[in-house]
Structures are given as structure tokens and as C-alpha cells.
Amino acid sequence: MRLGAVLWLGIVVVTMALPALSEARSRPPQRAAWRRPSIRTQVPTATNTPLPRKEVFDLALQAYRCGVDAGTFEPGLLTVIDFSLPSTAKRLWVIDVPRQRVLFHELVAHGEGSGENYANEFSNEPGSRQSSIGVFRTADVYRGGNGISLRLTGLEPGVNDLAMERRIVMHGADYVSTRAVAALGRLGRSWGCPALPRGVHRRVIERIKGGSALFAYYPDPRWLRESRFLRCGVTRVASR
User: Fold this and answer.
1) Quick one: pLDDT band at residue 48, thresholds 50, 70, 90?
2) Lowest mean pLDDT among 23-27, 32-36, 47-51
3) Which residue, 72, 162, 200, 201, has fewest beta-carbon neighbours within 10 Å?
């Protein structure tokens, strides 16, 4: 084919393509076809709050299961207080046991007779103004001098079984707050009651009232050795 003919053919092809190119440029850009994003299935976690220290939680679960098996507690909830921690730490947990889910994690005061920032003395004696350790069952709610309060039944003879007589109850208090810690370097102290921050105390009380387990821990060798809730294989826990 001659050079002239080739040039003529090329001009014709380009001329025919120009309208199509112009139309393509004038069209809006087309989006890629939508695809449903892939979703990885995960086990839901309601909270990132850690459980109590393993050695404390293991003992609390042991006591809880022992009491539930004996009909002493309503199953489901377990409140743990770790009195080996300072008052400046959040040392109270309310735990949904079947799900091992922390419902509340709060500050809690100890008795003024038990120590300053750290509690290191505990008593079952009226007038001591000391906290008691051991296993309790939550009882009824009433309105007293500290507002809404929750009675606690001590279940361990010689350790906390005078809690009702001593009026050891869970209630709210202004001295249980970060403001108190900033001012005092510790929480304020009760007369032996596990006092909670105002505001949250009502929600905690309403959740745990009516027969749930409360485990107040301190590494007291005699109690750890002799508590019948921690020796279910040796002795039977009395039912209510």
C-alpha cells in the first residue's frame, strides 16, 4: 500500500474515534460495584474491667459455689471486696459469675478502727469500728441515717456473724470519692461499713440485694484455714 493511502486511512480512523472519546470524557465516572464488607465474628465483651486478682477471685468463687450448692446464696451474682488493697484503689467488684462479667468496679471504704489507707485489723466486736472479713449474704434494703442502705448477714461465727447487731451495712458516703483521696491521701473511713461512692451506691445495692454472696477478703491465715466456705470438702455449709 502506498504511503499516501496509509496516511489517508489513519486520518479517517482518528476522525471516527474523536466523537466516542469526547462522549466518554463527558460521562460522569462510574463507581465500582458495591460489595458487602466482610465482618469478622467476635465474642462480645461488655467491659474491659479486670477481674480481681486470681488468688482472690479463686477463693471468692470457691466460697460462692460452696454457698450456692448449700442453698445459702441466690446464684448469679458475687460481690468481692479485696481489703488487702489500699483504699485509694477500686477494690470492690460486682460480678456476673456465669458470664465472668464485671458489672461494677468501685471504691469502698473500711472502718476507721481498721487502719488508715490500708486496712490491717478486723473485728466482729460491737463498738470496734473495724471492718469484718469473710462471707456475707445480702439482705433487705432500708432507708436510714445514710440514706438507702443494704443490710448484710455475716455467715461465719466469730468472724462476722455479729454484722446485724453491729449494723454493718452497705451505704453511700461523701467521703468515698476521688476528692477525698486528693484531700486526705486516702478515703474517709466508716464505722465498719463497706461504704460506697454516692450516686453509684443505689445502683449497686439494688442489683445485689436479696440473698447474693459478698466475699470480703484479707489474707488472714486463721480465717483462710478455718472458713467452712473454703473447706466444702471437709465440712458442710449451713443453709439459710
Assistant:
1) confident
2) 32-36
3) 200
Q: Is the pLDDT of residue 28 over 60?
A: no
Compute the distance between CA of residue 219 and CA of residue 114 in angstroms, rounded to an integer: 14
- Give the CATH number of domain 54-230: 2.40.440.10
In this predicted structure, what is the pLDDT of residue 66?
A: 98
Q: In Å, how far are 118, 142, 145 from 79, measured between CA atoms?
A: 20, 19, 24
Q: Single out the residue of 52, 216, 219 nearest to residue 124, CA to CA.
A: 216
